[in-house]
Specification:
Length: 172
């Protein structure tokens, strides 16, 4: 019975990859590749750190749009004991946009990086809550993929954290 459950979890994981949950990763990686070559053309040399920071900012602006587009579903991802869910969803969307700009300002990039890492850790807890309660944030329903979503989301969140750290805090 355990192996059947594992197979079902893996199938759900593959289905998640095919769904919209990969969009932030696709935006991050594709914008990174485009920006790497654009920076090379403009500056006559590669600057992977700058390109990574800009790509993270692009992704943050992309995900911020979700806060205004899927507000109902995103508010369902917040535990019941937290008040003013809709306002919090809007506020976190604005916060992502501010962090996107902060990553591009030399004097603010380190503090913005640390703030973004803390934000990503907090958002992971909302994703865990949503998975436990089968929230489909795009539809605003309780028929989401459940815990199998975490097979993708947790490693993705760690990638975003590492990406932020190495592009804005500990610049390689």
């Amino acid at each position: 019975m355990g192996s059947l459950s594992t197979i079902k979890s893996f199938v759900n994981f593959v289905n998640e990859l095919k769904d919209n949950n990969m969009k932030p990763l696709i935006v991050l990686l594709s914008s990174f590749l485009i920006i790497v070559f654009y920076v090379k053309i403009i500056n006559k040399e590669y600057n992977f750190t700058l390109s990574a920071r800009i790509a993270m900012s692009v992704m943050l602006c992309f995900t911020a749009i979700g806060h205004f587009t899927f507000t109902k579903g995103m508010s369902m991802m917040i535990p019941k004991f937290i008040p003013h869910k809709t306002n919090l969803v809007y506020l976190t969307g604005l916060f992502e946009i501010l962090l996107a700009f902060g990553l591009q300002i030399s004097k603010l990039k380190v503090i913005s990086g640390w703030t973004l890492i803390a934000f990503l850790v907090l958002v992971l807890s909302a994703n865990i809550y949503a998975s436990i309660h089968n929230v489909d944030y795009q539809k605003g329903t309780f028929d989401g993929s459940g815990l199998s979503y975490l097979w993708f989301r947790i490693p993705l969140q760690f990638l975003f954290i590492a990406w932020t750290y190495f592009s804005s805090i500990r610049i390689l």
